[in-house]
Amino acid sequence: MKTMTLEELQQNAFNAFQTAAEGTVVDVTRDGQVIARLSQAKLTEHTGITPLVESDFYQAADGVVAWVAEESEPVLVSTGLRDKSILIEPVR
Q1: Across the beta sheet with 33-41, what order do the strands follow?
Q2: Higher pLDDT, 51 or 63
Q3: Quick check: 54 and 85 in contact, CB under 8 A?
Q4: Is the pTM of the predicted complex or chain greater than 0.85?
Q5: Using H for helix, E for strand and C for coil, what is the string for 13-42?
């Protein structure tokens, strides 16, 4: 398990997503509260969740994580890292 702030995620999104894709759960905090959790996923395990695939995703990752936290809906992300995906879930 790794914890990082939303600001740290903004600065280092690629490494955060790579860490999650390789199996380490990453908790993202804002103002000291965990707002979202990034974890390794397989596309086939989450058929009810619409996959999000975006070429510049790493640059937009902080916004997507904040959006997930606000909207309370999980998002599945295809990372392009050896067919690994990440599940971003809101934490309440």
Answers
A1: 2-5, 26-30, 33-41, 84-90, 75-81, 51-52
A2: 63
A3: no
A4: no
A5: HHHHHHHHHCCCCEEEEECCEEEEEEEEEC
